[in-house]
Amino acid sequence: MTKKIIQEKLNLHPRNQHRLRYDFEILTQNFPDLKKFIFTNQHNIETVDFSNPDAVKALNKSLLITYYDIKNWDIPYNYLCPPIPGRVDYIHHVADLLAFSNNNIIPETENVVGLDIGVGANCIYPILGNSLYKWTFVGTDIDAKAIENCTKIIEENPKLIDAISLQQQLNSRYIFKDIILAEDKFAFTICNPPFHSSQEEATNSSIRKVNNLENTKTLNPVLNFGGQNSELWCQGGELAFITQMIYESVKYPKQVLWFTTLVSKNSNLSSIYKTLNKVNVAAVKTIDMAQGQKTSRIVAWTFLTELQQKNWEF
Question: Which residues pair with 299 in a beta bridge?
């Protein structure tokens, strides 16, 4: 009998437990509802239809139950349903960044406080960061319904009650203002910024994504990952959002160890580096990430010298 070769996803972080194919036997044991979405594709591999939003949500639920000790998780209709392996990668890379400032030791303690800008309705980064490294989080969003759903997730998973607090950003023009207070200290900020510059651009991108997944042509796709306007687009798109974030970060140079953000468009990097240079950051790091055919990167910056980083108390 020939042994089945399981290909490892080498583009994911070495500590990412989703580098191998999903173990649907274990996942369906923990969440039987997933079973109806599983099929065998033309390569004789078990998978789910990633263009089906219900399948993606069921897969997420099963992963959160199986690997992250989350018993109850759901999102409202048409809110962003994040692909968990990629979100896990961001958390692991942030852990490496903190280790860089901490004698190469990842601080695994509730004293590490992260700030999630745009926590969404899914609360995924705080859930993963707490499960993997015991970190605590403040999650912010301009969307009241997103904050309301995160509150429900936290209440239905008691282990999260002391680990995650939420705050609505009431002024959509700002990112950190009224969120980072004088007494606050954050080991890091984390952000998946709105990618597109208009509703039309967001819709066209979704059509392309679903057509690629289904290998078909449709002008009215069912969006597999969903997304509200504030999650998908803002005036000026990703570059405008990150530029605003950089300029605001200047006001909190000693209250945050590492500011970080995802950057989807490689073409935005040169402008981002110029802005960071203008505000005299002490250090900048760019971390490449990839999942499937999608490439992305994290840009991180700090205003603290290496000595100040070493003296940061976790």
Answer: 261, 286
Q: Which is it for strands 294-302 and 283-291: parallel, antiparallel or unpaired?
A: antiparallel
What local confidence, expressed as pLDDT, does residue 218 receive?
52
Torsion of CA 15, 118, 146, 55, to 10 degrees: -40
The pLDDT, as a whole number, for residue 7 is 61
Residue 6 CB neighbours (<10 A): 10
Burial of 199 (0-12, 13-18, 19+ CB in 10 A): exposed
Contacts of 113 (CB under 8 A, 6+ apart): 135, 136, 137, 138, 185, 186, 187
Cα–chain center distance at 134: 17
Taking only the tens place, the pLDDT of each residue in 8-20 is: 677 899 999 999 9
Convert the pLDDT of each residue in 135-175 to its tens digit: 999 999 999 999 999 999 999 999 999 999 999 999 989 99
In sign, the C-alpha dihedral spanning 20, 75, 128, 293 is positive
Q: Which residues contact 119 (CB under 8 A, 6 or more apart)?
A: 125, 126, 139, 140, 141, 146, 147, 150, 166
What tokens does 190 get? 């984390």
Q: Output the CA–CA distances (angstroms, integers) from residue 103 to 95, 132, 185, 310, 312, in the order listed.
A: 12, 20, 20, 7, 11
> Rounded distance, CA 80 to CA 202, Å?
13
- Structure-block tokens of residue 110: 């509730």
